[in-house]
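Quick start: read one record
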Amino acid sequence: MTVRYGARAAQVNHEIEAKKTDIWSEAVTAVYETDPEIIAAILPPPLEPGPEPLVRITITRVEMPGLPVFGAGWIGVQARHADRLGEYPILMPMTTEQSLIGGREINGEPKKLAEVEVSRDGANVSAHIARMGSVICEITGKVTGTRENYELEKTDFWLKLSPSCEEAGVLDQDPLLVYGEKTERTRLYESIEGELILKEAPLDPIADLVVRRMVDINWTERASTQVGRVIGPVPRAGVEPFIHQRYDDLSVLGAKR
């Protein structure tokens, strides 16, 4: 008799292995400028604002080997750590448990279950993210032209946390700063003439990242690979005031009612 929950001699980390191969997706991306003080307010130390107060919202339909097609979102801001320029995500909504758990537990990515939809009918594109009964954001528009394909490398900054089971708002130990090092290339890259709308969502107050100037909206068919690299621990005292970014405060729903 084999007990499948028993110890195993070898473990395969499917999250890590899957992201080492090309993962193709269709994505709508909006980039805009907000106020510099808003960027500074949401970055936990040791992260600092980058040279531009940029916010990026990407809404994606993903095909990952071994998993059903799923929706994935990315909402984050330009940030810097030492001499490394990258982005700090404050919300990575996912439509399935499998796409959420690995990145959240292994890498420290701020993933949450959500409704994430992307659709395209000819040149017309629409996409949205919603959670817990509230639409967070919408992107609509029309494809207006083709751009030259690109290949680039970029870095996400993640914090791998261990919240205390004994006291609210406290970490068990210093969190780990992780670099998510990505390579991204496109097979289709198109301009969109459209609109980004930020909605008031009590659990996900993305509307606080006010739009001051739209920089770009685009459509891509792209492949990406990703590896996580632990940089080291950072003092927990500086990160603890930002734990709320990762977890829902359901009390605000009661206050809203």
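The chain is about 15% helix and 50% strand.
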